[in-house]
Amino acid sequence: MAKCAICEKTAGNGNKLSITRSHISKRTARTWKPNLRRVKADVNGEIKRIYVCAKCLKNGKVKRA
């Protein structure tokens, strides 16, 4: 699985809970994937295509080419 080149965010996992009549009756495994974008970025003076999460793009941590 790909990860963010800036913050190294990867997929997380946990349980999906089915709630019925105020009881947690069933638990199913699920994954939360990061919102990754493949962008052209200036990395150490070179233009490369890297995977970056949307949060890093929004915060301006990446200098796009």
Cα radius of gyration in angstroms: 17 Å
Task: Please give the share of residues in helix.
Answer: under 10%
Fraction in beta strands: over 45%
Number of strands: 4
Q: Quickly count the helices.
A: 1
Q: Name the structural class.
A: mainly beta
**Span between termini:** 25 Å
Order of helices and strands: EEEEH
As for the number of domains, it is 1
Q: What is the topology, as strand order, of the major beta sheet?
A: 1-2
Spans of 5+ residues with little confidence (pLDDT < 50)? Answer: none
Q: Looking at the structure, what is the overall shape?
A: elongated
Outline the structure in words:
- Strand 1 (12-20) and strand 2 (23-32) form a beta hairpin.
- It is elongated, with a radius of gyration of 17 Å.
- It has one domain (12-58).
- The chain has a two-stranded antiparallel ribbon with strand order 1-2.
- It contains 1 helix and 4 strands, in the order E-E-E-E-H.
- It is mostly beta strands and 65 residues long.
- The mean pLDDT is 91.
